[in-house]
């Protein structure tokens, strides 16, 4: 069946986007650690109790995930990007990625950028077959880890990774940092970087010992409360645990940022998988409880989800991150509730699809629209200034079923999901998705679940199930009715011929797709 069977992974977020970087004061001093790393001392310094009590839900982590479903495996550094030189990033003489406000300004160590670049190189190292390329990916990853180790601050028995520049963000009131400052996102991602490096076969035993110690030091920072400095974790007034991407000392003024906490949680998954430390699983449980229970505040119904709990600003790019991150949290726990939250965001504002689409039109009259969008260079996306304003409308009639090419499928502000026609007499016009009158032929944005989820066919309700041919048409269909509620497992969900559907994996309906609107699924 034609289509793109993957939910696209958005580009990694720029933690500093939308903010302003300024040089630190000439008097600024960062208390970098100067003593060599003593692995035994670091291990002995890791707290053995949680920093405070917080809400939990008995979420547990699955440590037997297939390789492709593990953290950061979807974030490989490509060979063309192994030596970056962009407006904001470049490599210094030691092969460490640096962040600069512009090409004309000096660069800074930026822990999140270094962690993410290193983790991408590790992912590529695992799959690369060319020895020279494989060696360079490993060299790059080790350089990032060593810089973090060299630039660590040891405080309260933990390692912290400082940001050596001042940073403000006008849209997020309260984000006004004077160097050095710290980020829970960096702390968690550093745990992933050190842990994953320690598991590779291309390092020495001395390096392995060092990386394990570094992971211990970073993990200890998530076990220190906000009753001292630096800090990265706290709890809100309702008792929910937060790993703060942007910790602010004044109570209640942190951003409570969703994506930053989830990226940090991946470090807890890596650390627990490697060490079995029960405190890592308890922190993960508390963090996921927060994500689940705050989902109504993250969600922005039928539009982009909100970036953080404090400012609740709709975030087009981060909405796609939330979808991707919730999918991974489902894999890491097997929770159908988390999977359902993922599905909800998919429907609120679906991910982009490839630019070569085929729309099926039924015989009859259809209404077409023109909207004010960002235009071709930005995939006809939304902006607050244009706000998808309606610019034109017309009706067209077809005496028989037909089809048209399209290059965009997205939700229009305040409306449903629309397709943009990109060839023929109606080029530039949009038509609403409405099965069976107008729909995108094929399978798009498939999500794989692990483990299988459960669909419930309601009693005494006729449900039509479909098998699809190679061209996206219904090859066969069958209509079933059960006297009592009947359950069936499914392992995937996709937009198929314009409707959300799930595919059954066992019983007489194995291989059939079932419209989500006709059944109930677990986690709802």
Which characteristics define this entry?
alpha+beta, 5-stranded antiparallel beta sheet, globular, 7-stranded antiparallel beta sheet, 524 residues, 23 strands
Structure description:
The chain is an alpha+beta fold. 28% of the residues lie in helices and 23% in strands. The protein is globular, with a radius of gyration of 25 Å.
In short:
This protein is an alpha+beta fold. The protein has helices at 39-45, 111-127, 131-150, 184-198, 205-221, 258-275, 278-293, 295-298, 316-333, 336-348; strands at residues 20-22, 89-91, 97-99, 153-155, 158-160, 166-168, 176-177, 233-235, 241-243, 357-361, 364-371, 390-398, 402-411, 417-421, 430-432, 438-440, 443-457, 463-468, 474-480, 486-496, 499-504, 513-515, 520-521.
Number of helices: 10
Q: What is the number of beta strands?
A: 23
Radius of gyration: 25 Å
- How much of the sequence lies in strands comes to 15-25%
Strand order of the largest sheet: 12-11-15-14-13-10-16
Layout of SSEs?
Blueprint: E1 20-22, H1 39-45, E2 89-91, E3 97-99, H2 111-127, H3 131-150, E4 153-155, E5 158-160, E6 166-168, E7 176-177, H4 184-198, H5 205-221, E8 233-235, E9 241-243, H6 258-275, H7 278-293, H8 295-298, H9 316-333, H10 336-348, E10 357-361, E11 364-371, E12 390-398, E13 402-411, E14 417-421, E15 430-432, E16 438-440, E17 443-457, E18 463-468, E19 474-480, E20 486-496, E21 499-504, E22 513-515, E23 520-521
Antiparallel strand pairs: 1-6, 2-3, 4-5, 6-7, 8-9, 10-13, 10-16, 11-12, 11-15, 13-14, 14-15, 17-20, 17-23, 18-19, 20-21, 21-22
Helix pairs in contact: 1-5, 2-3, 2-4, 3-4, 4-5, 4-6, 6-7, 6-9, 9-10
């Amino acid at each position: 069946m034609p289509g793109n069977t993957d939910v696209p992974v958005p580009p990694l977020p720029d933690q500093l986007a939308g903010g302003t970087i300024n040089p630190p004061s000439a008097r600024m001093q960062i208390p970098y650690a100067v003593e060599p790393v003593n692995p035994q001392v670091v291990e002995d310094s890791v707290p053995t109790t949680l920093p405070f009590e917080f809400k939990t839900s008995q979420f547990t982590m699955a440590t037997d995930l297939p390789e492709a479903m593990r953290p950061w495996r979807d974030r490989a550094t490509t060979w063309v990007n192994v030596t970056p030189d962009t407006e904001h990033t470049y490599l210094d003489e030691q092969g460490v990625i640096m962040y600069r406000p512009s090409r004309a300004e000096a660069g800074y160590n930026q822990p999140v950028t270094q962690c993410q670049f290193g983790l991408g190189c590790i992912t590529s190292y695992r799959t690369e077959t060319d020895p020279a390329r494989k060696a360079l990916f490993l060299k790059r990853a080790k350089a990032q880890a060593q810089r973090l180790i060299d630039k660590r601050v040891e405080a309260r028995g933990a390692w912290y990774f400082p940001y050596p520049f001042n940073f403000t963000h006008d849209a997020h009131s309260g984000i006004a940092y004077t160097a050095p400052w710290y980020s829970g996102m960096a702390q968690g991602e550093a745990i992933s970087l050190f842990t994953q490096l320690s598991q590779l076969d291309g390092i020495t035993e001395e390096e392995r010992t060092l990386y394990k110690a570094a992971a211990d030091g970073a993990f200890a920072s998530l076990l220190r409360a906000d009753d001292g400095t630096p800090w990265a974790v706290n709890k809100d007034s309702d008792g929910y645990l937060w790993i703060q991407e942007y910790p602010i000392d004044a109570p209640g003024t942190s951003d409570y940022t969703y994506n930053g906490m989830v990226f940090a949680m991946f470090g807890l998954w890596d650390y627990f998988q490697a060490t079995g430390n029960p405190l890592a699983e308890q922190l993960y449980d508390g963090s996921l409880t927060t994500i689940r229970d705050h989902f109504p505040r993250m969600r922005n119904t039928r539009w982009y989800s909100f970036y953080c709990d404090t400012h609740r600003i709709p975030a087009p790019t981060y909405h796609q991150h939330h979808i991707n991150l919730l999918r991974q949290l489902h894999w890491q726990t097997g929770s159908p509730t988390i999977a359902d939250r993922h599905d909800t965001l998919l429907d609120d504002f679906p991910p982009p699809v490839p630019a070569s689409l085929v729309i099926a039109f039924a015989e009859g009259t259809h209404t077409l629209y023109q909207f004010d969008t960002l235009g071709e260079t930005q995939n006809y996306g939304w902006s607050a200034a244009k706000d998808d304003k309606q610019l034109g409308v017309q009706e067209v009639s077809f005496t028989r079923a037909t089809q048209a090419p399209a290059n965009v499928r997205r939700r229009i502000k305040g409306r449903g999901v629309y397709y943009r026609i990109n060839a023929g007499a109606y080029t530039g016009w949009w038509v609403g998705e409405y099965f069976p009158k107008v729909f995108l032929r094929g399978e798009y944005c498939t999500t794989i679940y692990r483990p299988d989820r459960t669909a419930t066919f309601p009693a005494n309700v006729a449900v039509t199930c479909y098998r699809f041919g190679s061209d996206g048409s219904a090859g066969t269909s069958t209509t079933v009715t059960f006297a009592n509620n009947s359950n069936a497992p499914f392992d995937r969900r996709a937009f198929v011929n314009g409707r959300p559907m799930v595919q059954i994996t066992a019983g007489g309906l194995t291989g059939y797709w079932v419209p989500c609107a006709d059944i109930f699924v677990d986690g709802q």
